[in-house]
Design brief:
Blueprint (H helix, E strand, L loop, with lengths): L7 H4 L1 H16 L3 H20 L2 H14 L3 H13 L3 H14 L3 H17 L3 H14 L4 H79 L8 H31 L5
Helix pairs in contact: 2-3, 3-4, 4-5, 5-6, 5-7, 6-7, 7-8, 7-9, 8-9
Length: about 260
């Protein structure tokens, strides 16, 4: 829960003296109207805060800050913004109040609420650190101790979850890389098979082309046909006649040679 500190100057004796000194300083430099206006805006803001009208409370606290840059106004503004669920905007108000206030009680409460804001944002490491800073000022504050214990448990759970998420990411990365390698190998095998298939198809096409070429050449050559019986007989007669003529010619030449020979 948010530890509220509605009117620091009215609730803490030490703070009363501090606020009185600040008021006297402001009056001394000629700013009584500004101080009174700031105090009035603070009172209006506190009334709205108590009624649960945190938007109106925020408006009045901002008006108070415009008149007087006081730690109390920053702290109360941080509470009003926190109550509206705007934790990111509340953080710088609590940080400024913790660093600028001279009241230990306000500083401890500012760090406490700063831890709450970081807790709501699930920034548990920063939440733990803020609670520790609060306990360094007010070591006996049980609310802060409880919140610190809760924040430390959530921080441990968060770190464990982050570790598991990282391990899962690493595992997924390894599986993706392995799947990618397998896919690349499969792609290479398929590519090689496609190339071999294309080569086989090309060889088949080349072979078919050669066969078709040879077939066309055979078809272009004159075809020899078998002679029938009559044609074969005529061919033999022609050959016999030719042979006879050759023999006759040779006999004549032989006889002629003998007759014209020299008589010894």
């Amino acid at each position: 829960m948010v530890k509220s500190l509605k009117k620091v100057c009215l609730k803490r004796p030490n703070a009363i003296r501090i606020c009185a000194i600040i008021a006297l300083f402001i009056i001394g430099i000629g700013g009584p109207i500004a101080a009174q206006t700031a105090h009035k805006s603070l009172r209006f803001g506190d009334n709205a805060y108590e009624k649960g009208d945190f938007s109106d409370a925020e408006l009045n606290y901002r008006r108070a800050l415009e008149k007087e840059n006081a730690a109390q106004s920053k702290y109360n503004l941080g509470n009003a913004i926190y109550k509206q669920g705007r934790f990111e905007e509340a953080i710088p108000q609590f940080e400024s109040a913790a660093s600028s206030s001279v009241d230990p009680g306000m500083r401890a409460n500012a760090f406490h609420n700063l831890g709450n804001a970081y807790f709501e944002k699930q920034e548990f490491d920063k939440s733990v650190e803020a609670y520790k800073n609060s306990l360094r000022i007010a070591p006996d504050d049980m609310d802060t101790k409880k919140n610190l214990s809760r924040a430390m448990r959530r921080l441990q759970q968060q770190q464990q979850q982050q570790q598991q998420d990282q391990q899962q990411q690493d595992q997924n990365k390894e599986e993706n890389e392995e799947n990618q390698d397998q896919q690349e190998q499969q792609d290479q095998q398929e590519q090689q098979q496609d190339q071999e298939q294309q080569q086989d198809q090309q060889q088949q096409q080349d072979q078919q082309g050669e066969e078709q070429k040879e077939k066309k050449e055979e078809q272009a050559e004159p075809q020899e046909r078998d002679m029938n019986k009559e044609e074969a007989k005529k061919l033999l007669q022609v050959m016999d006649e030719e042979e006879r003529k050759v023999q006759e010619k040779m006999r004549k030449m032989k006889g002629k040679k003998t007759t014209t020979g020299k008589d010894w």
